[in-house]
Structures are given as structure tokens and as C-alpha cells.
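User: Hey, quick favor. My workstation is busy. Could you predict this chain's structure for me?
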Amino acid sequence: MLVSAALLIALGYGLVAPILPQFARSFDVGVILASAIVTVFALVRLLFAPAGGALVAKFGERRIYMGGLIIVAVSSAACGFAPDYWSLLVFRGIGGIGSVMFTVSSMGLLVRLSPPAQRGHTSSLYGTAFLLGNILGPILGSLLQGFGMRVPFFIYAATVGVAVLVVAIFLRGGAGGIPADDVIQERMTLSEALGLPYYRALLLTGFAHGWSNFGVRIALLPLMAASIPAIGDAAAGIALTLFALGNALTQQATGRLIDKRGRRPFLVLGLAISAAATVPFGWLQTLPWFLFLAAVAGAGAAFIAPASQALLADLIGSNRNGGQALSTYSMATDLGSIAGTLLAGIIAQLIGFGWAFTVTGIVLAVAMVPWFFVKRRTG
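Assistant: No problem, here it is.
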């Protein structure tokens, strides 16, 4: 049910994400303000993440998951009705609150519901559902272009609403509910998590993953394509699709491998592949290399996400509430996304895209270092 809900959520998000900057520009604002529509979502997610973790600990994963989805649905519909730019900015920011609520709680539900021997496979299935939605969403969006830029927001709200119904009907009772008054549920505190070398290494990996794959790749790849005549802006969409396809296809194998061979080797491998595909990305400025390296980077990312989530589940355990640890990991990823977008963007503007992607590759390579010094553990 979580995988089905993830597909519906991502399908709607894929509809909305490509048109957000253009919709903002339709209110006669400049490029900076139009870009802020994207940044405010990640910024609000970052700021609200600690509160999201506290809410999960108090009310349980399922309630916060559905509450977050409801907020996203309402804010998306409100964006469709937005009369001006500043209303759109506020409504999009509110959507970030809902987003971090269901992100943190969904990770918590996966921790509780996944059998320990299948955590990698479960995480890869969940991630694949998001990827497929992000691939199919823009395709569906292109078919709806004639209906205007407001319609996708209403469709997004509707798909998220269906996801709420799916979870409410099929995940009633069981794990992830509000803790009973007479039951004291053990919790993993943030200080306990930070005392674990594996968790500290995961935070750095999440930061690097966010910097590269949720920040730089989304923000700079289209700009680079548009600035190079041999590539062209039309190739940006193809490259992002190849990244998602490489990720989705590779995840079909990575989840089972992670469960059989352990988390750490594939975290290192994923970071290494991602770094190797990212460093030359801005220098090999031809269309074949542009598309090939995008697909390879997607394959590298397919090792990072499921291995990270499976290891988080190992550290927290099925019978503990890890809201604080999960929200802090989410914050590390969002912080990387924001830092990558801003800092790599400045580097690209000052000295070129080649150096921006090189620095990104270095960040990925640095995230590998802690994994060589943590002690081996089961899984």
C-alpha cells in the first residue's frame, strides 16, 4: 500500500514540478523569484523536519503520514487557485510542511513493516515507485499543456487525495499507530543516534546525495544543456528521464543485493559510481556523453537510497520509534539539496559548469571516506 501511494504521489509531483517556475513567471516576476518557488519547498522541509520527527513520536507514523498528505493535497489545490505570486509562494511553502511530514513518517513505517532480511528490497521497491511516477508525470503533463498551467495542480491534489484513501483504508490498525497510554514505546533519541559511527556516516552520505541528485542535477543540468549548442535545452528532459530510468532499472537488482551482501559495500559503490559519472559531466560537452553519464549517475544513485534506508532501519529496529533520527537524516538530505543548488550555481556562474560538477563529484567522494573507518556489522 505504501508503494502504491508513493506512485500516486510521485505521479502528481511529476506533473507539477516542471511547470512551477513557468507558472511563477506568469505573474510577471524575474528568474530569481521564480526559482524561489522551488527553493522555498526544500527550505520549509528543512526547517520543519525536527517538528515532523516530534509529531511522529507523539501521534504515530500513520496519522502523521496521512496528515502530511492532506496538507500537500490542500496546498496543491490552493496553488492552482493562487491569484498572485506571493500567494503561490506561501501555498508552496505550506506544501513543504506536509511533504516532510509524510517523508519522515513513511520512512518510519518502512522501518516497522519491512522484514529485517528484506529491508533493502522493500526500500528499492518504494524508491522505484517514486521514480516511475516522476517519469510518467511529465509525460502526462505534456498531454495536458493545452488546458493551462493551473490544471496540473488540481490533478496533483486529486492523486494525493487518492493516496490518502489508499492508506486510510488498507493500513488501518497495526504498526505505526498512536502509542497507547499504558504502553511505553522505546525511542531512539537523537543523541543515541549521533553516537553511532554508522549514523554519522549516513548523515554525510545523505548530504552528498541531496547535493548531487536533488540539488545540482535538477537545477544545473537544464541550464548547462541550454548553454551548450551541441547539446541543447531539449536534451535536458531526456537526460533527466535517463537518470530516472537508470535508477529505476538498477534498483530492481540493488535491493536484493543489499539484503544479501550488506549495506556498507553498496553505499560505497553507489557513491563511487555517482562521483565517477559526475566529475566529467561538465567537461565532456557532447550529446552522447551528456546522456550516457546521466544514465550512469542514475544507476549509482540506485545503490545509495535503498542501502541508506535499509541501514537506518537496522539501526533503529522494528520496535522503536526513531522519529528524531529519521527527521535529522531528512534534514541532512534537504540541507545538501539547498547547499548544492546555491553553491554549485555560484561556481557555475563564476568559473563554469565543469567546475560546478567537479566540486559535486568531490563532495560525493568525500562522503565515501567515513565508510572505510566504521567497524563491520551484520547487514
